[in-house]
């Protein structure tokens, strides 16, 4: 988005997948092991981080239905968590996707515009909940195709659907 901030929500690295047009959010869900075995998602996250570090206004966040013990283990064990600008673990706030309150809490905490947010998730109900709040969303059914889908959403001139 030219002249605008991009937020990406990820929820498919670990069963993460939220993506935002003004914010990038990684959604994390159990089981813990798939995160390590999904190199495409981690590579995409790294590419988005590099774009941000190169001066693009891209923010990365996570939103996850993760219990507190798993969340703390992920934060300690997975180095890519330092790439995020913030996020919400359901266990910490006692809310879960697709409840709209967890999406609204994430947007409020980090001050991003839902209309400028791209949400990525592998669960249709979670994607529909994001869309109902005015977020752009990708239902990730093929992780290898996700990079191209995200690139299309971030292309200059691409406008959020209303």
- The CATH topology assignment is Rossmann fold
Which second-level CATH architecture applies?
3-Layer(aba) Sandwich
Shape: globular
- Major sheet details: 6 strands, parallel
The CATH class is: Alpha Beta
Structural class: alpha/beta
DSSP summary, beta strand count: 6
- What are the segments in which pLDDT stays under 50 over at least 5 consecutive residues? 12-37
How much beta, percentage-wise?
15-25%
| Count of DSSP H/I helices | 7
Percent range for helical residues?
25-40%
List the domain count as a whole number.
1
CATH homology group? HAD superfamily/HAD-like
Mean pLDDT: 77
Nearest-angstrom radius of gyration?
14 Å
Summary keywords:
Rossmann fold; alpha/beta; six-stranded parallel sheet; 162 residues; single chain
Q: In words, what does this structure look like?
A:
The chain has seven helices and six strands; from the N terminus they run ββααβαβααβαβα. By secondary structure, it is α/β, with parallel strands linked by helices. Strands 1, 2, 3, 4, 5 and 6 form a six-stranded parallel beta sheet that branches. The two termini are 15 Å apart. The radius of gyration is 14 Å and the shape is globular. Mean pLDDT is 77; it is low at 12-37. Helix 6 (124-132) links the parallel strand 5 and strand 6 (136-139). The chain has a single domain (6-154), classed as HAD superfamily/HAD-like (Rossmann fold, 3-Layer(aba) Sandwich).
